[in-house]
Amino acid sequence: MQFLCLPRAICTADELPVKASKALSAKEFQSRYPHCFLSEVSFEHNENNCYIIEGMFLINCPPLRVHTTFGEYAQFLYRRWVQRSIKLFKAKEIHIVFDHPHRHGISPKDVERKRRRVEVTDCDAFTSICKDTVCPGHKWKEFLSDPLQKRLLVNFLSSELLQLHVQSCASLNVSSTALYTAGGFDEGNKDQAFVAHNAGDIEVVPSLMSNHEEGDSRVWFHAKVTSRNVVIYSPDRDTFHVGLPLMSLIVNKVIIVQLRAAKADDLFLHMNLFYDALTKDLQLQKIGADMICYIPTLIQLLYIVSGCDFTSFFRGHSKRSFLQTFYRDCEFIAALEGGGSLHNYCADSWEKGLLSFYRLIGSVYFRKFSSAFQEEAPVELFRKICPNHSSVDGQIAFLEKIREGHFHRISDESEWLPSTSALKLHWQRCCWVARLWAEACNSNVIVPLVTSHGWLISRDTISFVWDTDENISKVDSNQRMLKGGCKCTKGCLQNWCKCKKGSKSCSLFCMCKNCHNVSLEESTSSQSTLPQTSSGSDSCSDYSDETSCESDQNSVVDPGNVTFDGYSTSDSFDSPLDLEIPCIDETDPFNFYIFFHLFHRCCHQFGKCH
Question: Which helix H or strand E contains 232, and what residues bound it?
Answer without folding.
Answer: strand 229-233
